[in-house]
Design goal:
about 650 residues; 26 helices; about 65% helix; two-stranded parallel sheet; mainly alpha
């Protein structure tokens, strides 16, 4: 198995060249990964927290946005450094450091964070569709499952195409808000005062609400899955692995990160400023719902502003969906060694996020979705420590990072950011549990019997994640990868295949498949030509079916067999029935074949979903080598005798 299968996002690893480029061309080659990350900083979850903060407290929480952006800039640069220097994403580095059970717990928590993020994207897109096309929210939520097809298509087109799509979405969002800023006309002096910190820790109700929204803003801005994502995406750039090449890659990725995240900050600030200027200023202090923001914009400023608002919302949700999928793939492969098809993992994540959205609409009505979005962002913030603490440990480790380990000043700053995040989260959790106990005294048994023990267990896990790398600095757990590790090669004696199967579909592939099979076995092997009849009758009646297609296929298969025998080869033909992959695998196993040659149908992306992927399915159902022959467009179906 090639090493590239063990790399983070193996199909696009080192796929973008940065070598032999100078000046602005080199900068352009590195620009991209941070933009994919930055869309997570302007997704619908940010919209909800920014609108809630702006409408309730005016410009007073701009400093929280600015602080969150600085924290994000620091942590994302550390994430990029880890990926560039060690060639590992954050999940892979965690797997090599922590025991298996801890990695499983970290995976579950990271997956919860992705679902929380996806939940905000689902609701945001559904609201955007409702605002533009008047679709009921429950229909919009259901329609969001179809974006799996778009994600699959883009990922098959390559990393650069994916980055261009994301950048175009960012451009739409930014342009929409730039125009809205001119329409709203914000108070410049009020914005400037918003950068002065406000006391979040007063004991009155307003400050508790401000703390809750502030933590939601931090969770919506510094997203845990983005730290995993960035450490992997930087590895899509092919760099010179010398010290100078690594140093250059770190520098250019810092430029990329700084530009992209500052653009994200401007978008977030624009949303908060829009809410403060349009709602707080006009006496609407409790606009936590995105739909309400749309209606008020229409009421105050006419039809253009809300339309731009809805278009930007859809673009934001769609772009964030794609990056969330990539992060989910990285986390699953890194923490628990499980690699599944991206469309399937996207579908599973989307379904897990759709369920709470549907439940909220059915039982609490459409008005409950705004609160659900803010809750999802608070959940994201609560997960941050489990990504931030390992990241700081890994980038501080001089044994593994060498001269590229972060310095003392950066380390102190990083730990201060982690302490701030953890402190705010601890304050929120403590206050929230106390509030629940006062508001719902009848549920005390559940609060103290379930919520408190789970909270203590999560806190204990966080302490372990913090302490373990310091206690066992020079101990790495054996590196585990989805496809195992390479073994020593001592004996390369040729393998002699005795019984070779060849799949036949009466297309241009057949001649090449038979030719490759003969190259493996020569005249000493026996060849079984396999064709599967997939008619409706064959699926239901199997070997009893004798329709026209079955008879015709049997006659054509016999012609191939006769041709091979005339050339001196031992051959026979077998007709299978029903599903191709299952039937081929059963014939191979029943006939005790030791090698199989199959033709690739050449489908990609959407066609794979429609027609299926027979080769992949067969490969997992048999225990013999499978040789896949790709179609050659220039080859014609001449008689086998002309070889």
């Amino acid at each position: 198995m090639s090493n590239e299968q063990n790399q983070s996002l193996a199909n696009v690893h080192s796929s973008v060249s940065t070598e032999n480029k100078m000046g602005w061309r080199k900068l352009l080659a590195f620009i991209g990964p941070a933009y994919l990350v930055s869309v997570g900083y302007m997704d619908p979850g940010n919209w909800a927290t920014d609108i809630a903060g702006g409408s309730a407290f005016g410009y007073r929480l701009i400093w929280i946005l600015f602080l969150s952006n600085l924290i994000a800039l620091l942590l994302q640069s550390l994430s990029a450094r880890l990926g560039i220097v060690r060639g590992l994403d954050l999940a892979q580095a965690s797997k090599n450091t922590y025991p298996r059970f801890v990695n499983f717990c970290l995976y579950i928590l990271a997956q919860i964070a992705i679902i929380a993020c996806d939940l905000a994207e689902i609701i945001g897109m559904a609201i955007g569709l409702q605002l533009l096309f008047h679709l009921p929210l429950i229909w919009g939520v259901s329609l969001t499952i179809t974006d799996t097809v778009l994600m699959l298509f883009l990922m098959n087109r390559g990393m650069r195409k994916l980055e261009i799509f994301i950048m175009s979405m960012i451009f739409i969002i930014g342009l929409s808000y730039l125009i809205e800023m001119f329409i709203v006309g914000p108070d410049i002096w009020g914005i400037a005062k918003g950068f002065i910190p406000t006391n979040l820790f007063k004991k009155d109700l307003a400050s508790h609400e401000m703390l809750y929204i502030a933590i939601g803003i931090i969770g919506a801005t510094v997203m845990p899955h983005n730290l995993y994502l960035h450490s992997s995406l930087v590895q899509t750039r092919k760099i010179n692995r010398s010290d100078e090449g690594i140093k250059s890659a770190i520098k250019f990725n810092l430029f990329d990160t700084t530009i992209a995240l500052n653009l994200a900050f401007l978008v977030n600030a624009a949303i908060l400023i829009l809410a403060a200027s349009a709602f707080f200023k006009n006496g609407y202090f409790k606009v936590a719902e995105i739909q309400d923001a749309y209606k008020l914009l229409e009421h105050i400023f006419g039809s253009l502003a809300p339309v731009l608002f809805a278009i930007a919302l859809i673009a934001s949700g769609q772009s964030s969906t794609i990056t969330g999928t990539l992060a989910g793939q990285i986390i699953m492969e890194g923490h628990i060694n499980l690699r599944i098809e991206p469309w399937l993992r996207r579908l599973l994540t989307r379904l897990l996020a759709i369920i709470p959205a549907m439940f909220t609409i059915i039982y609490f009505g459409e008005n409950g979705l705004g609160s659900l979005i803010i809750l999802s962002q608070v959940v994201l913030s609560l997960q941050l420590g489990f990504a931030v603490i390992p990241l700081i440990h890994f980038t501080s480790d001089r044994k593994r990072m060498g001269k590229f380990a972060i310095g003392v000043k950066v380390k102190i700053l990083a730990w201060a950011c982690a302490a701030l995040i953890l402190g705010l989260n601890a304050k929120l959790v403590f206050d929230q549990i106390g509030d629940w106990a006062k508001q719902y005294p009848s549920a005390a048994i559940w609060i103290y019997g379930l919520v408190v023990p789970v909270t203590v267990a999560i806190a204990a896990l966080l302490i372990y994640v913090f302490v373990e790398p310091m206690l066992f600095k020079h101990k790495d757990h054996p590196a585990q990868v989805p496809h195992g590790l390479a073994t020593a090669i001592n004996d390369l004696t040729p393998i002699l295949y005795k019984h070779i199967g060849v799949t036949i579909d009466f297309s241009n592939n057949d001649r090449d498949c038979i030719r490759h099979a003969i190259m493996q076995g020569g005249k000493r092997a026996h060849y079984t030509l396999i064709h599967v009849v997939e008619t409706a009758g064959a699926r239901y009646y199997g070997t009893e079916v004798m329709d026209h297609e079955t008879q015709s296929d049997a006659d054509n298969l016999d012609k191939y067999v006769v041709s091979l025998k005339e050339m001196g080869y031992h051959a026979n033909g077998i007709i299978g029935y029903g599903r191709a992959a299952k039937s081929i695998a059963q014939i191979v196993n029943d006939e005790h074949m030791d090698f199989i040659v199959m033709g690739s149908h050449g489908h990609k992306a959407i066609k794979d979903l429609i027609f299926g992927t027979t080769v992949n399915s067969v490969r997992h159902k048999v225990n013999v080598p499978v040789l896949v022959v790709k179609p050659q467009p220039t080859v014609t179906t001449d008689s086998l005798k002309t070889q």
